[in-house]
Predict the 3D structure of the following.
Amino acid sequence: MSLLEIRNLSVEFDTAAGPFRALAGVDYTIEAGEVLAIVGESGSGKSVAMLALMGLLPDTATVTADKMTFEDIDLRSLSAARRRKVIGKDIAMIFQEPIASLNPCFTVGFQLDEALKTHTSLDRRQRRDRVIELLTAVGIPEPERRVGAFPHQMSGGQCQRVMIAIATACNPKLLIADEPTTALDVTIQKQILDLLTGLQRDHGMGLIMITHDMGVVAETADRVVVQYQGRQMETADVLTLFENPSNPYTKALLSALPENATGDRLPTVADFARDYAKETQAGTEARP
Amino acid sequence: MSDAILKVRDLKRGYEIGGGLFSAPRLLHAVKGVSFDVERGTTLAVVGESGCGKSTLARMLTMIDAPTSGSIEIDGTPIDIARSGITREMRQAVQIVFQNPYGSLNPRQKIGAVLEEPLLLNTSMSAAERRDAALAMLAKVGLKPEHYGRYPHMFSGGQRQRVAIARAIMLRPRLLVLDEPVSALDLSVQAQILNLLADLQDEFGLTYVFISHDLSVVRYIADKVMVMYFGEAVEYGTRDEVFENPQHDYTRTLFAATPKADVASIRARLEKKKAAAG
Amino acid sequence: MTDTPTPAVSVEAESRNATRQMLAEFWFYFSRNRGAVVGLVVFVTLVLVALAAPVVAPHDPDMQYRDSFLTPPFWSEGGKTAFLLGTDAVGRDILSRLIYGARFSLFIGLVVVTIALTGGIVLGLVAGYFRGWVDTVIMRVMDVVLAFPSLLLALVLVAVLGPGLVNAMIAIALVLQPHFVRLTRAAVLAERSRDYVVAARLAGAGNLRLMFKTILPNCLAPLIVQATLSFSNAILDAAALGFLGMGAQPPTPEWGTMLAEAREFILRAWWVVTFPGLAILITVLAINLVGDGLRDALDPKLKRS
């Protein structure tokens, strides 16, 4: 059985200009121990899907799905708050802005301890040991000293490491990483990606990487879902996708990579987008 | 080699930090003595990670901040804003495009006014002439005349960056500093903006100083590359020299860290993973 | 205007469209707040009534009807339909006085806010834009003003200037000033380092243009909200000064002054104090509701995606 299975998920937002369909019937399946990349540009609905899963969307959103199961729990019948309680321990999420994701008023150690307190029954001393262990696991130097540090005393890369430590504190079965390295430098990005894939491999977690960066996809993913304007374009394993993309949008996206440039000018996705808009009459959905 | 439009020699910029009531301020050098030349009509890429001083360099080149020491010479004219202030001619020589297209346009200013402001302040053109110039520039950067009267929030990131580029070249500068102009944009939009920049360079003979952290973009657009690390230029040479044969350790680390999206690398990674699992 | 060729017409039309769309969007968010719409309706009614006071008011506000001192409202025992809300101790119609009083209250609010807003914007812009010692001097002076209880300071100012409506308005404006200065300064500090300001500076904009044309329009949203809230504050303070005998002088039908005159009849004739009090309450509430709605509509942080 799959770890997470979602069928025909749609999300609609109420806005000033009328309803806006952010996600139109997408499917995701992820097995235990697998790395799935959801790749798309802004407006592709790649983050919305995972926020819907976690019940983190604002009230203006309407979520519908034919199927939404985690292991054998049907998530559709649970309220957002109840859902977080049920799956909060088993699904963890990290976000793009590591410094903004940590509470600036509390020390790193306190915030890690809080996650453990909520989801485990460890006593004070055990939690303390576990905090040090987690910080060591994510590669923070001198963890005994750093537990007392505040987020602003650490660099962006270190904050992201702490976020990862918090996320993996309860050994989740699924980790969702929403653009985890976009705000970081390349050399730090490399370290964080290695850390994530390393933890994923060691713990046999499922990992969903939400990203816009084809390079990140190529470096981490087993399977890839390509999205465009709230629709699923293609689902393929990573090698097939890069070697032999079947969808015109994927092809366009790959050829727009500067490293794949052959001529004087880069081919762009615009031509594809024009055809696509014509095909689906998506005029109302496309933003100006 | 003689046709250098921009000559920078031993440029330094320090900031005083700290300095409370009793402690003396410490001097922090953001840029520690950088020298380079840029030839007319070419692109120099400045590469580095956050905190390496590349944005400080951009601010000095565009005369936003004055250097602590060293010299900048544009087209044979020395630039020294600390002593002589900024003249109209100097302003027309250099312009900048910022990284974040959402912050670089005034939310309360219509696009037409955005484009006309430099003309209004620096030329004696009439309102009708300015308007024609703005409309012509909109067409040049791939926008439509009806965009003239709209507000920035009605545009996508890519379109805003087009507007920002249009504003920067309204005064026909000789040198354009591009501070991470595509790093906030989607991949497909990035390609369009890079193409636009190439078109404009051909048409107006523009010289670019292109600041970026993205090596794949740099490799595509640059003629010369300078790698900065903690305020120093650790590598400076033509694109091929730098990419084929990097001299400094940091440059090599940077190359190794850049994700590779080619099929061979993916295959190698998957093999390795399988080997580790099996 | 210059004659416009055919393509230019569409450019102009599009420009008007953009402006209209901004207004439509503003109204969409404003109208989502029910309270704000109700407040707006009440406020607009009040303005109309105040403007049309001579037409609407059943009696002259200063006319004393010697045969009907302290007549209760028409639904109470002994009330007359000629005096819907009753009369005061010298036989003046309360309803008419309230209607004319609305003129004073709105006038006070408008003048006070205009003075405080103009001064606040100029001082705040200067302080936030230039920083340095200018900033320090302006802000410390404002801190001193803020350190006094506002009504007390207003009282002192009126005592120095002499009692009267105009002096009361000046005093209240001075007391409200620091809030505008601080708000403007904070907004300017947030905006001045934004890229678009740097871009305008590179385009050759001078200090004045940067301050008033580039930065100021982007700082207006919180100021407008503060202005509405100060509007009601001004009315309240003016009423308080009037009540203490330091504001508008009798027989001016100002609401606070009316309350002051009615003080001795509180126990005998409830209507003489209730209706001016209610008028103040409703007006202030309506304006504050509008202010809340404006904040929702103008603050982009609260906007839903």
